[in-house]
Structure formats: structure tokens, C-alpha cells
Specification:
By secondary structure, the chain is α+β, with helices and mostly antiparallel strands. The chain has one domain. The protein has 3 helices and 4 strands. α1 runs antiparallel to α3. The longest helix is centred in the last third of the chain and has 36 residues. It is found in: Bacterial flagellum basal body. One of its GO terms (biological process) is bacterial-type flagellum-dependent swarming motility. Belongs to the flagella basal body rod proteins family.
């Protein structure tokens, strides 16, 4: 049963980290888009996760803990409301009457760090799956 619990936790972590990777990649891909269908620059997206709400002191086995509280879940994907970056470029087709072009509020450096963080967390969850699989195979070997 503990192996299944570990796989459930790792599986949830993989899906959350995969979504974080996709959102960061989308933000980077749209970092220079000055006009979307709404007529405004692209607005960066952020993934909002639920916090693990585990008790301070855990007693009992892992199976007895309410894992619904421990499994990370995506609450929402929200638009970043920080202001757009403004650049003076009167020759740009999207420049206003003052020659100002509004660019997306995507911070490329922050998005690269987010990609690295999500990538490492994804790899850690893959390791959990791999180790759990090895443990299950060893258990089956011992039971033969």
C-alpha cells in the first residue's frame, strides 16, 4: 500500500511540474508579443498551487494520513497583473501617439529560473517513481 501512496504522490507532482513547465514555456514564447486578440500585449501567466496542509506532528503510518491534504494540486492559472514594460520606439507598428510601445510583463530571467525549478522538481518526482518501481520489483523477487 505504501508503494501505491508513493506513486500517487509522485504522479501528482509530475502533473503539477509539467503544467509549471508548460506555463513558463508559454510565457517565454510570448515575451515579445505586443498585441494579442484583445489588442493588449501578452500578460504573463502564473500557476497557483494549493499548499500542503499537513499537521505539525505526524503520528501513525503514511497510509493513515489524509493524503488529500498532502497531494499538491493546481488551484488556478492566473494572469500577472504587474504593469507592462514600456519602450520608446516610434517606428514600431504598435507604438502609441507618444512613440511608446507596451511589451508583455514577462521577466525572462524569472521565467528561466521557474523552468529550472520545475524541471528539477519533475526529475525528483521521476526518481520517486523509479525507486518505487525498483522496490516493488525487489519485493516480488523476495516473495518468489
Amino acid at each position: 500500500m505504501k508503494l501505491l501512496t508513493a506513486l500517487r504522490l509522485a504522479s501528482s507532482g509530475l502533473s503539477v511540474q509539467s503544467l509549471r513547465l508548460n506555463v513558463s514555456a508559454m510565457n517565454l514564447a510570448n515575451a515579445e508579443v505586443t498585441r494579442t486578440l484583445t489588442g493588449e500585449p501578452y500578460r504573463a501567466q502564473n500557476v497557483v498551487l494549493t499548499a500542503a496542509n499537513l499537521p505539525e506532528k505526524i503520528s501513525g503510518s503514511l497510509d493513515e494520513i489524509d493524503l488529500k491534504l498532502a497531494i499538491p494540486k493546481v488551484t488556478a492559472i492566473v494572469e500577472d497583473q504587474s504593469p507592462f514594460r514600456e519602450v520608446y520606439d516610434p517606428s514600431h507598428p504598435d507604438a502609441d501617439e507618444k512613440g511608446i510601445v507596451r511589451y508583455p510583463n514577462v521577466d525572462v530571467l524569472t521565467e528561466m529560473i521557474e523552468l529550472l525549478s520545475a524541471s528539477r522538481a519533475y526529475e525528483a518526482n521521476l526518481s520517486v517513481v523509479s525507486v518505487t518501481k525498483s522496490m516493488a520489483l525487489k519485493t516480488l523477487e523476495v516473495l518468489k
